TrEMBL record, chain A:
InterPro entries: FAD-bd_PCMH (IPR016166), FAD-bd_PCMH-like_sf (IPR036318), FAD-bd_PCMH_sub2 (IPR016169), FAD-linked_Oxase-like_C (IPR016164), Oxid_FAD_bind_N (IPR006094). Gene3D superfamilies: 3.30.465.10. The keyword Transferase does not apply. It comes from Reyranella aquatilis. Keywords: FAD, Flavoprotein, Oxidoreductase. Residues 1-183 form the FAD-binding PCMH-type domain. It is an enzyme of class 1 (oxidoreductase). Its EC number is 1.1.99.14. This is Glycolate oxidase subunit GlcE. Pfam families: FAD_binding_4. GO terms for molecular function: glycolate dehydrogenase activity. The keyword Flavoprotein applies. It comes from the Bacteria.
From TrEMBL, chain B:
The keyword Flavoprotein applies. Transmembrane segments: none annotated. It comes from the Bacteria. This is FAD-binding protein. Residues 51-229 form the FAD-binding PCMH-type domain. Keywords: FAD, Flavoprotein, Oxidoreductase. PANTHER family: GLYCOLATE OXIDASE SUBUNIT GLCD. It holds the Pfam family FAD-oxidase_C. Its cofactor is FAD.
Length: 396, 478, 435
């Protein structure tokens, strides 16, 4: 086991990082570690740092729809607190424990570090869109704040978004502040069966191009279950959801007979979509996550399937594709990235053996000019390369 | 009069003016190079007219490649560049300096692609905000951010200032509706960030670029998310006998879990000004007015409005009037969106842009009127109440130097107050030159130094929109 | 906006008026978005805000106009779209008129430009000279391409080109007025100078319409040009003389028989007549009389709209694209009346996309700035053709001519259509078009 800093507050966090920077000793930074197996492997480092002892909700104003928390706060604690006021984190963060088979409760800091979102991302934005303020400690040990607790803020550079999804490579978060939303009064799903990928995406596109409060849209092809399921979720007031479901059934008439899915059945279905449940087993498969324009998704998939045996499904109306491939050769990297190269978008190798993640690019390779900027930014936050050095890209 | 300082122009650059202009003629189409004093004068200020500086020259490129050539040249020869969209900044974000070339994007105004299946539109940065919605409206789509200057302001400027608008309460601001950009860095390299898909690869540089006020690079193309319009939308006017009542009603609506599309606030002074221009039927016998817009099917709007009306009545609303026609709706919004300009009919003004927590609205409103009174001036308030983004218009006489400095002092006091109660200096107008020296109220040195370092990662020679955003004495510490 | 005029400068009534206008401008930039030249050229100096700023500097510094300033002011169409847009109520028309007068006083134009402008000012307002000029233009047609290569020749060529689109209109002599038995009202109908020559059928239709509704129409024999043409060319004193002359003529009519309105069928003229009160505000002898004349001025569609209107007698239902002249919608803020008249007569009226943008006619603009005018015409015609009309209707002869030169769809004056619907003759250009 490596030695581990476990600061209890921002001050301790800062001094730990300063120590490491002085000693030029790289740190593996994590929250509870539910996603430690994501990104490029950092196996060789002697020291780690966890924020799991920095816990607690630092600010909650239900009437202003704002919540702030220390990074080690479990997401479940935040959810519970919000639920008391019938509110929620809008972006429906995925729980990676399902894919990684880990048990430690995901922390809010980890969610922000990975810009982790779920199916509702298409309607209300990603984690980075709800995040309105951060405090963080840079690789120099400096405490820096950006953003704040108000919804609109263009004062100075947006270091909030820069650090959301930076996987702890620039700074270690010491507080995160979100805008939250009231929970919808009602949520239900409308589904269609028996469709191939192309028609399914067309049906989802029609739904997302409507004005009926669609908050999620996914397609689970027949290869996953016994029959294919194409579903959208409607959320809002009782009236608007009922109305939307009726209208959507009409809109979908040419695709087939729409079926209503309500209550727990609907909720469970979306949990599975959120956590990529169907691809979790067998554990030895590599898992890719592709973000691309929905209309291109069926072609890209067809292209990939010609060359590679995959299990897959679509979220975000087709804009997000989850793929499971055999963890051999390059785990399909060349096929996937070539298929994506012509269409635009990016592919992330979410789950793979450490050896595989060491050998191939986990995150989408960057064009030279963007890579250079990324290196410069890393340098200005973490000149001694102590924070998760190399987790996203080699040298960063 | 002028409180805001400018740096001394670089004499060496001024001395090289002729040769710089000569070089620029080889880089851009002649119709896009402006050098005569009279013609450059049109570019010496933006909508913060109290401050003016004649630029060295103005270039209006037509392509990303021309932008790249100009930036590379300026980078190699150490010439400053001030980017400009429509020049509608209220914070002086587009005001040049004498040793800088203004690079205007107005000639880059083409729509490049519209894709309804993937719900995006790709445009050049000089396209105006409203014309984006105009393009997709025939198919029932819209682009959500709607700053009040949307008729004139450009998408490039919106990105630079992370523009919001009345309807961002529900739909978010520019950063939440932008999928990708093509931008030119100061060394002339052209990069694409994001694209026609969600969540760009690598670090969120797209998120960083939004709101960076033209200091990281010049955006030449943008891919914007478009949304299907709701089935119907209906603004309702709620008149209150007191500002406190209106402020409380806003907080209560949000607290009740209702997120209307927009909640706009006007005080008596603003109501009178806007009604005179737009004849929108605003009630003139109230102290404060809320314009609340809801959308959806008729039944949904009726239900939501019933809830909001109950809250408004409980807070003492005396007037409740729904728009009954598209013409009425248009007039209601025209009045609101023209508020700043219409104020020009009665006085000069400085427009503040601080944002405060919605729970603090009533308190801050009361304090603002005290502050402005203390400086012997008047104020009109018209702003986005739902997200706490305040726009006090400090009324004064620009031809009276003592009033100018009083107005600026009052503005500073108001912004300090916004920060004190947990808010920020600017919600959507940007820091520009106007709030540059107040940055230290909101940020510690460590915060600012880190921002400056990031800025320097993009523009190490500090050539892009140099005198903006950061206190002048600060950059050396970066 | 802050201004910086010396006290001596402000002693001048024109300057002090302009200073008031400039003070209202907050430089918000809204006007740039609806300015035709900014849409085409995208240079702020070719936008209202830029021009206002250049004018401000020129007037503040009391300096002579420079060629650059003149170029950008000359490119202004005076369409006044900016005034419709402006939330601050900046009276751009009065400001630019002042600037044009200042230019005329302080700037010597190159010779070809001077000759051309002089010729336009000496010919267009005078029907006899205009008829002669048109004959010259017809015989010069073969050499227009050659002319275009001379200094200032592009403008001459444009003039000849335009004149050819007049050929389908019958030149006639000025009309007598028309009396009716037991009139319910009495109006003066502006003959219009170019319109007498190029579009007499318009006023014929107007007279039929008015008399059909019991309105007596007078057309004073000594009425002159309204002054708009010389005003926009910067000949301020000639414009004022024209205004004074007409004020006298109509005042005489008011005193001998009374006038309920001064009815105008060319909106470009209507805008200026409605402004006589302002133009002559500093002339003690005329200020009051002029204000009375301005108050009586009505566009024909405004006037008809207020009458208890008879029903149409023909089978209508044709699709009409209504093109609102800038002087109509921006100058006079008359928007709905013409469309509502046409709809009342049973026409299917379609709104033209980008309807607020000028067609490029703008008085003498299509002669003086042919390149921009042609681009605007092409844009206008494209927009009109999008709505697939059978007929284009407009309330201004200049637009009718300008648009007519760019499309095969017939263009008529609104009153010609209304008159036909009520039983008047079919306008010439519609012969064979109304299947």
């Amino acid at each position: 086991m490596t030695d581990c800093y476990k600061p209890r507050d921002e001050c301790g966090l800062s001094s730990a990082i300063k120590d490491a920077a002085t000693a030029k000793m790289p740190l593996v930074v994590r929250g509870a570690g539910s996603k430690s197996a994501m990104g490029r492997p950092l196996g060789g480092y002697a020291m780690s740092l966890t924020t799991e002892r920095m816990r607690g909700v630092s600010l909650y104003e239900p009437t202003e729809l704002v919540i702030g928390a220390l990074p080690g706060t479990p997401v479940s604690e935040i959810d519970r607190m919000l639920a008391k006021h019938n509110q929620m984190l809008p972006f429906e963060p995925m729980d990676h424990r399902v894919l990684f088979g880990t048990s430690a409760e995901p922390t809010i800091g980890g969610i922000v570090a990975g810009n982790v979102s779920g199916p509702r991302r298409i309607a209300v934005g990603a984690c980075r869109d709800s995040l309105i303020g951060v405090r963080l400690v840079t690789g120099r040990g400096d405490v820096v704040k950006s953003g704040g607790r108000v919804m609109k803020n263009v004062t100075g550079l947006d270091l909030v978004k820069l650090n959301c999804g930076a996987w702890g490579t620039l700074g270690v978060l010491s507080e995160v502040i979100f805008k939250v939303l009231p929970k919808p009064a009602r949520s239900l799903s409308v589904g269609l069966g028996g469709m191939n990928d192309t028609t399914a995406i067309a049906a989802l596109t029609a739904a997302l191009g409507s004005s009926f409060a669609v908050s999620a849209a996914a397609h689970i092809p027949a290869s996953i279950g016994s029959d294919s399921t194409t579903i959208v979720r409607l959320e809002g007031s009782d009236g608007s959801v009922a109305y939307g479901a009726r209208e959507l059934a009409k809109l979908w008439r040419s695709f087939g007979r729409a079926e209503l899915i309500e209550g727990d059945e609907s909720a469970n279905l979306w949990l599975r979509v959120r956590d990529a449940h169907w691809l979790a087993q067998p554990m030895d498969r590599s898992i890719w996550r592709l973000s691309l324009a929905p209309s291109k998704a069926p072609h890209v998939l067809a292209d990939i399937r010609q060359k590679l045996g995959v299990r897959y499904f679509f979220d975000w109306g087709g804009g997000l594709v989850w793929l499971a491939v055999v963890d051999a050769d390059d785990a399909g990297a060349s096929v996937v990235r070539e298929a994506m190269a012509n269409t635009g978008g990016h592919a992330t190798l979410v789950r793979a053996s450490s050896e595989m993640r060491h050998r191939i690019d986990v995150f989408e390779p960057l064009p030279p000019a963007v890579l250079k900027l990324t290196q410069e930014i890393k340098k200005c936050f973490d000149p001694d390369r102590v924070l998760n050095f190399g987790r996203m890209y080699a040298g960063i | 009069m002028s409180k805001i300082r400018f740096t001394e122009p670089n004499r060496e650059i001024l001395a090289r003016r002729d040769s710089i202009i000569n070089d620029l003629t080889r880089l851009v189409d002649p119709a896009g190079l402006i050098t005569s004093t009279d013609e450059c004068r049109a570019y010496e200020t933006d909508a913060l007219t109290a401050y003016r500086k004649m630029p060295l020259a103005v270039v209006l490129p037509k392509t990303t490649e021309e932008v790249s050539a100009v930036l590379k040249y300026c980078h190699d020869t150490g010439v400053k560049v001030v980017p400009r969209g429509a020049g509608t900044s209220l914070a002086g974000g587009a005001i040049p300096s004498e040793d800088a070339v203004v690079l205007g994007l107005s000639k880059m105004n083409r729509v490049l692609a519209v894709n309804y299946d993937d719900r995006f539109i790709r445009v050049e940065a000089g396209v105006t905000n409203l014309s984006v919605t105009a393009v997709v409206a025939e198919n029932g789509f819209f682009y959500a951010p709607d700053p009040s200057s949307q008729l004139a302001c450009t998408i490039g400027g919106n990105i630079a200032n992370n523009s919001g608008g009345a309807h961002c309460l529900k739909y978010g601001v520019t950063t939440n509706n932008l999928l990708g950009v093509r931008m030119v860095l100061i060394d002339g390299s052209i990069i694409d960030l994001g694209g026609d898909y969600l969540d760009s690869a690598g670090l969120d540089l797209l998120g960083l670029v939004v709101g960076s006020e033209g200091q990281l690079g010049i955006v030449t193309e943008a891919t914007l998310r478009i949304l299907k319009s709701a089935e119907g939308a209906r603004p309702v006017l709620f008149g209150f006998p007191s500002c406190e009542g209106a402020g409380k009603a806003v907080a209560d609506v949000i607290a009740a879990g209702i997120i209307p599309v927009a909640i706009e606030y006007m005080d008596k002074a603003a109501i009178e000004i806007c009604e005179a221009f737009a004849k929108a039927g605003y009630p003139l016998d109230v102290e404060a007015l809320l314009i609340v817009e809801v959308e959806g099917s008729d039944a949904e709007m009726d239900a939501t409005l019933a809830d909001i009306t109950a809250i408004a009545r409980a807070n003492g609303a005396t007037t409740v009037r729904e728009s009954r026609s598209a013409i009425e709706t248009a007039a209601i919004w025209k009045g609101r969106k023209s508020a700043f300009g219409a104020t020009g009919r009665v006085a000069d003004y400085l427009c503040m842009d601080g944002t405060v927590p919605t729970g603090k609205l009533s308190y801050v409103l009361a304090e603002i009127s005290k502050i402005v009174q203390r400086h012997g001036l008047r104020v009109a308030n018209v702003f986005h109440a739902g997200d706490g983004n305040m726009h006090p218009l400090i009324l004064y006489n620009a031809n009276d130097p003592s009033q100018q400095s009083k107005a600026e002092a009052a503005g500073d006091d108001i912004l300090r107050l916004c920060v004190e109660v947990g808010g920020c200096l600017t919600g959507e107008h940007g820091v520009g030159i106007e709030k540059r020296d107040l940055m230290r109220c909101q940020f510690d040195d460590a915060d600012l130094v880190q921002q400056i370092r990031v800025r320097a990662a993009f523009d190490p020679r500090w050539l892009l929109n140099t005198d903006k955003v950061f206190p002048l004495d600060f950059r050396c510490q970066g | 906006m802050q201004t910086n005029f010396s006290l001596t400068a402000l002693a001048d009534a024109h300057v002090s008026e302009s200073e008031k206008i400039l003070r209202a401008c907050v430089h918000c930039g809204f006007c740039t978005a609806t300015c035709p030249t900014y849409l085409l050229l995208a240079d702020e100096a070719d936008s209202p805000r830029g021009r206002i700023y250049l004018i401000k500097d020129m007037l503040e510094e009391e300096k002579p106009a420079t060629p650059q300033v003149v170029e950008h002011i000359d490119r202004c169409l005076t369409c006044l779209s900016c005034m419709t847009t402006c939330p601050s109520g900046v009276h751009y028309m009065h400001l630019v008129d002042h600037a044009r007068a200042h230019i005329a006083r302080t700037y010597t134009r190159p010779l070809p430009d001077r000759l051309l402008r002089g010729m336009l000012a000496k010919v267009l307002p005078f029907p006899g000279r205009l008829r002669l000029a048109l004959r010259v233009a017809t015989v010069s047609r073969p050499i227009r391409k050659w002319l275009a290569n001379l200094p200032g020749g592009a403008q001459l060529a444009a003039m000849i080109e335009l004149s050819s689109s007049f050929k389908r209109r019958r030149p006639t002599r000025r009309l007598p007025g028309a009396t009716v038995d037991r009139p319910r009202g009495r109006v003066a109908l502006l003959s219009g100078c170019a319109q007498q020559v190029l579009g007499q059928n318009i006023n014929e239709a107007a007279i039929r319409l008015l008399t059909r509704h019991g309105i007596e129409v007078v057309q004073p024999i000594d009425e002159g040009c309204c002054g708009a043409l010389v005003q926009h060319l910067g000949y301020e004193s000639r414009a004022l003389d024209a205004a004074r002359h007409n004020v006298d003529v109509w005042t005489r009519e008011i005193e001998n028989g009374g006038l309920d309105a001064i009815v105008v069928t060319t909106s470009g003229c209507g805008t200026v007549i409605k402004d006589y009160g302002f133009l002559l505000r500093n002339d003690n002898a005329y200020a009051q009389k002029a204000a009375r004349i301005s108050a009586l001025a009505r566009d024909i569609t405004e006037f008809l709209h207020e009458l208890p209107l008879q029903d149409g007698v023909r089978t209508t239902g044709q699709v009409v694209a209504y093109h609102s002249a800038c002087s109509m919608q921006h100058g006079q803020q008359v928007r709905d009346q013409p469309k509502s008249l046409l709809r009342r007569m049973g026409f299917v009226v379609r709104e033209v996309p980008e309807g607020h943008i000028c067609c490029g006619s703008a008085g003498t603009y299509n002669v003086l700035q042919p390149e921009i005018a042609n681009r605007l015409r092409a844009r206008k015609v494209t927009n009109i053709e999008k709505v697939k009309p059978q007929i284009i209707a407009s309330g201004n002869l200049g637009c009718i001519t300008q648009i007519g030169a760019g499309t095969r769809i017939p263009v008529v004056h609104t009153v010609e259509l209304v008159d036909w619907a009520m039983g008047g003759p079919l306008p010439d250009v519609l012969e064979g078009c109304l299947g």
